[in-house]
Amino acid sequence: MSPDEYCQQKAAASGSSFYYSFLFLPPERRRAITALYAFCREVDDVVDDCTDAQVAHVKLAWWRAEIAGLYAGNPRHPVTNALQPFIEKFQITAEHLYEIVAGMEMDLTQTRYLDFTNLERYCYHVAGAVGLLASGIFGYKNPRTLDYAKDLGTAFQLTNIIRDVGEDARKNRIYLPMDELKKFEVPAADILQARYSDGFTELMKFQSARASDYFRKAFDALPSEDRRTQRAGLIMAAIYHATLAEIEREGFQVLTQRTSLTPLRKFWLAWKTWVST
């Protein structure tokens, strides 16, 4: 199996919304973004699959060394081999790859966030940095596109947090800021034990409004001259925004269910966005 085939398999197996945005890209850019996505999946799987935090730390340290090897011209993993041809052409910087790994390390040491300032920092590492790298792969002329990419990454991560409240709670993780739980009178125990309340619904409306604000900030920042080259990101945005709207329509039943769009609907949103942008 070639490095590209490995990354393609990794991306397709995840069933992620990101996969649908890759389908319409030119082959070279599709190979690059698929390799980047596979890298993100690899380091994320370290946290998800390792029950021993010390083992996970060792594995993430290996990935840090592998990033160094990539930029020294000596990649060993299929993912870094697939990334290597594109690191200069598409501005795939070691700094941003290290930031992504740092975000995964945060998950090993932190299960609560006191306020949104701290949560926003986490969102930057696990999603904003990815957005910055993706924008380079898609192509841009105006530096303001980087503001769009960072805010869009945060919007995606905030949507993920809303969607996965119950799933995360079952892992003893609460990403909703603790000061906001207090503001809406939602005890952490209610989240952990999947107890709904009027306060919880209001809390989730507040979270949803914030995610929508980040989508809006991102769209406002995207320069018109870069809209076509950034269509893949706009496809992701369409799918994520539709998911957020679906969660709202279902009344934020996120403690006991995980809302997702069907593959057909994702593909339709991807096609519609591509042809209309």
Describe this structure in words.
There is one protein chain. This protein has 277 residues and is an all-alpha fold. It has helices at residues 3-14, 17-22, 27-49, 53-71, 78-83, 94-109, 116-138, 144-163, 165-169, 178-183, 188-192, 198-221, 231-249, 263-276. Helix 3 packs parallel to helix 6 (94-109), helix 3 (27-49) packs antiparallel against helix 7 and helix 7 (116-138) packs across helix 8 (144-163). The protein is globular and about 55 Å long. The mean pLDDT is 94.
Keywords:
277 residues, mainly alpha, 14 helices
Helix residue percentage: over 70%
Task: Tell me the structural class.
Answer: mainly alpha
String of helices and strands? HHHHHHHHHHHHHH
Q: Residue ranges: pLDDT <50 for 5 or more in a row?
A: none
The radius of gyration over CA amounts to 18 Å
Q: What can be said about this structure in brief?
A:
This protein has 277 residues and is mainly α. It has helices spanning 3-14, 17-22, 27-49, 53-71, 78-83, 94-109, 116-138, 144-163, 165-169, 178-183, 188-192, 198-221, 231-249, 263-276. The two termini are 35 Å apart.
Helix and strand topology:
Blueprint: H1 3-14, H2 17-22, H3 27-49, H4 53-71, H5 78-83, H6 94-109, H7 116-138, H8 144-163, H9 165-169, H10 178-183, H11 188-192, H12 198-221, H13 231-249, H14 263-276
